């Protein structure tokens, strides 16, 4: 009976914690975990995740002994000195100090994201459709600073909005209404509850703001604290705007307002997001892991290719940030590239295009390679054939060890030459494109 009671009390908290770990920490730190913010930052993020997973295994072991043992044995492979079994480990003890403020801010951020998604669903605005602006209304200046600062990147990415505007002027977009918390005050006030409730509901906007500022108010000789009264914030729509143009959602604590008006300047961003979404799905269809490096090629299937080309040019930085590589024109794909997946798409924002995923392929500077052998085509072709036969990863390592240079002296009946990376050959088409943009 005690074991059942213990599990009923503890397991829900463990499940909530694991849900936050997956959908908050891992989801919001994908770029860091993949190394796109630098090697040092990647190590910090991975080390943090490893420590949390290891500690979680130890905490869950009494409830899921076999499952945690499997996880633990995998975690042991990345570290020395760990016990042979999860069940030989001591139960984890509390370490360090909790960051109450940041925890509260992240909690509110999750609420903001949920509220904004609700508004989108209400107006049939999918997340792939970019919106111009979101306003967050809340009296806590520190929280608004976090939303407009440290947490801004996560909010923008999750909600696909171009800007977040913090607002601590509660009366600009909201009407305030006070409600007594009957569950708290009922027993304490007894027969006085009716009088106090009537006075609380009659509080003006100014009264409510003063109450929130000072933290208490005296009504009918009773001193009421912040925990005794619920403040509900309702949305007050600007006079010159309709519900289809601007709408809001709140939870009584924070109010989220979305500008729903279409903006032609956001069209290109919306198309780019659609293209990225199709690429991610194609990667999954090809059974690629997130760490698998591929080159991405784009080909317009429209008679007029200028629209898609303009979009790719204007959204190049966004596409690179999300995918970690260039979206290359299909005309640059070398004939020896190994294609992993290919698919055509139609009716995406009235555009048609095809996407090709290929293994990273060497790209040669033919004139520079010919110059190595005094314009001897046979020798130049022999060098290219040899380099193409090499394992791409090993060849990359050799160039790295040789400070960008590799001596090739193993081709039969050919003189030895020194091949320079970025001069005679590029490891990927993306590297070549990057070099041309730097010139």
UniProtKB/TrEMBL annotation:
<keyword id="KW-0648">Protein biosynthesis</keyword>
<feature type="domain" description="Methionyl/Valyl/Leucyl/Isoleucyl-tRNA synthetase anticodon-binding">
    <location>
        <begin position="9"/>
        <end position="133"/>
    </location>
</feature>
<dbReference type="Pfam" id="PF19302">
    <property type="entry name" value="DUF5915"/>
</dbReference>
<dbReference type="InterPro" id="IPR023586">
    <property type="entry name" value="Ile-tRNA-ligase_type2"/>
</dbReference>
<dbReference type="Pfam" id="PF08264">
    <property type="entry name" value="Anticodon_1"/>
</dbReference>
<keyword id="KW-0067">ATP-binding</keyword>
<keyword id="KW-0547">Nucleotide-binding</keyword>
<keyword id="KW-0436">Ligase</keyword>
<dbReference type="InterPro" id="IPR033709">
    <property type="entry name" value="Anticodon_Ile_ABEc"/>
</dbReference>
<dbReference type="GO" id="GO:0005524">
    <property type="term" value="F:ATP binding"/>
</dbReference>
<dbReference type="InterPro" id="IPR013155">
    <property type="entry name" value="M/V/L/I-tRNA-synth_anticd-bd"/>
</dbReference>
<dbReference type="GO" id="GO:0006428">
    <property type="term" value="P:isoleucyl-tRNA aminoacylation"/>
</dbReference>
<dbReference type="GO" id="GO:0000049">
    <property type="term" value="F:tRNA binding"/>
</dbReference>
<protein>
    <recommendedName>
        <fullName>Methionyl/Valyl/Leucyl/Isoleucyl-tRNA synthetase anticodon-binding domain-containing protein</fullName>
    </recommendedName>
</protein>
<dbReference type="GO" id="GO:0004822">
    <property type="term" value="F:isoleucine-tRNA ligase activity"/>
</dbReference>
<keyword id="KW-0030">Aminoacyl-tRNA synthetase</keyword>
<dbReference type="InterPro" id="IPR009080">
    <property type="entry name" value="tRNAsynth_Ia_anticodon-bd"/>
</dbReference>
